[in-house]
Amino acid sequence: MDDGGWFEWDDANEGHIWEHGIDPGEIEEALLDPDRVGADAYNVPHERRDAAIGATLAGRILYVVFTMRGEKVRPVTARDTDDGQKRRYRRR
Questions:
Q1: Can you give the residue range of the structural domain that contains 75?
Q2: Distance between CA 37 and CA 90 in Å, rounded?
Q3: Which of 24, 30, 42, 45 has the smallest count of CB within 10 Å of its CB?
Q4: Is residue 69 part of a domain?
Q5: Nearest to 3 by CA among 29, 39, 23, 21
Q6: pLDDT, tens digit, for every residue of 6-28?
């Protein structure tokens, strides 16, 4: 997938995403989903984090936590949405 260079990946965040059973390309698809919705994210003292709920091209709906590093989006973690998050996405 050509993300236009908008995403920052390295062994740490890519490996963490794979541990959750999600392909990094799916994260990019979910965050590039024009119908994605914002979601609550947890923050850590040294870094602001945001979250979004978006769908992959295959229709998998993901909850993605990310942070901005300059102009780049750095995915932090992701998982399949729970039932409430799926409903929220579908209501958008």
A1: 11-91
A2: 10
A3: 45
A4: yes
A5: 29
A6: 999 999 999 999 999 999 999 99
Number of domains in the chain: 1
Residue with tokens 């908008």: 6
Task: Return the amino acid letter for 87.
Answer: R
Indicate whether 5 belongs to any domain.
no
Is the whole model's pTM more than 0.85, yes or no? yes
Residue 1 in any domain: the answer is: no
Q: Are 24 and 75 in contact (CB under 8 A)?
A: yes
- What would the two tokens of residue 19 be? 């541990």
Assigned domain for 49 exists: yes
Nearest to 1 by CA among 56, 52, 47: 56
User: Model confidence over 49-80: pLDDT tens digits?
Assistant: 999 999 999 999 999 999 999 999 999 999 99
Position of tokens 């541990």? Answer: 19
